[in-house]
Amino acid sequence: MPPRVCFVTCTTWPEISASDALVRDALARRGVAVAARPWNGAVQDFNRFDAVILRSNWDYHHTIDAFAGWLDTLEAAGARVWNPPALVRWNLSKRYLLELEAAGVPIVPSVVLEGEVPARLAALLAERRWPSAVVKPLVSASAHDTALVRDGDASLVVEALATGAMRQPVLVQPFVEEIRTHGEWSVVFVDGTATHTVLKRPGPGEFRVQQHLGGSAEARPAGPAVLAAARGALVALPVQPLYARVDGVETREGFQVMEVEVNEPALFFTLAPAAAKTFATAVCRRLGG
Fold first, then answer.
1. Second-level CATH architecture of 111-174
2. What is the DSSP letter of 96?
3. Residue 235: which residues within 8 A CB-CB, separation 6 or more?
4. Could you tell me which CATH number the domain at 96-106+178-268 has?
5. Is the terminal CB of the chain with fewer CB neighbours within 10 Å at N or C?
6. Edge-first strand listing for the sheet containing 170-174
7. Which residues, listed in sequence order, are joined to residue 214 by a DSSP beta bridge?
8. Distance between CA 198 and CA 124 in Å, rounded?
């Protein structure tokens, strides 16, 4: 019987994405069957697959406890999961950025606020002299509930925190203007190799680069400094992943990491189709074929 691989999706987006379809097709040409299964769907037969690969489980952050419990169930059943559940759990909270910083990875300055967050936010911005800052829940994805504080006026964000419209704890970072002027890099790694790089830019009047918010993405070659810094973030991970995406921005201080995604990152295979074949080859290698 040919190997069977599951691409994990979600009930909000149950089908395999256009990007991941390129990997599915490349695996099919190698005799590997791929099926989509929402992590939160009615059918829970993940242990029947030879491998379970987290790909577009993009709604996990809305019910984070249920998702963490689902990971526990997979692990207890002995399912072969990529990336490994322990690494994914570590990556669920953006607190991991502070661990990377402690390991010597250059990150965008980051502060975690918990407890009396509304009262402390304005004081933090004044103390750090951050006239503009990005505030986001520690557990979030796709810029969900991500807010920009402009000109030191945190009143709208404070209100959202006080009313519960924005979840706590939060991560606070200075807004890096180079995102607007130079763009944000995504470096995609497959089994430790940088396969392609993508430059993302926000749309007019926006600070977020996600395409559903008007941002753009194009395949562009990144310079050696970007690649070296991204690789430094990769090797600092507690477990080396099958796939990862390192996001960051070039600043006057050098490349600074903004995110390292090993759960369900978009990997932009439609912009780099050859990398989809590399991903398929890596999966086959891990399957033992």
1. 2-Layer Sandwich (3.30)
2. H
3. none
4. 3.30.470.20
5. N
6. 111-113, 170-174, 133-137, 147-149
7. none
8. 33
Interhelix angle 64-76/85-92, rounded to 10 degrees, is 170
HSE (side-chain half, CA atoms, 13 Å) at 19: 14
The model's pTM: 0.91
102-105: long-range contacts, CB 8 A cutoff, minimum separation 24: 103/236, 104/232, 104/236, 105/229, 105/232, 105/233, 105/236, 105/257
Confidence tier at 211 by pLDDT (50, 70, 90): low
Measured distance CA(158)–CA(121) in Å, rounded: 7
Give pLDDT, residue 141: 61
Query: How is domain 4-89+275-283 classified at the CATH fold level?
Result: Rossmann fold (3.40.50)
Q: Which of 219, 230, 227 is nearest to 269 (CA)?
A: 219
Q: Is 96-106+178-268 in the same CATH topology as 4-89+275-283?
A: no
pLDDT grade for 137, boundaries at 50, 70 and 90: confident
Q: What percent of the chain has pLDDT over 70?
A: 91
Q: Where are the domains of the chain?
A: 4-89+275-283, 96-106+178-268, 111-174
* Whole-number pLDDT of residue 139: 85
Evaluate if residue 126 carries a pLDDT over 70.
Answer: yes
Q: What's the pLDDT score for residue 148?
A: 83
- Residue of 209, 273, 286, 196 lying closest to 241 (CA atoms): 286
**Choice between 25 and 215, residue whose per-residue pLDDT is larger:** 25
Other CB atoms within 10 A of residue 181 CB: 10
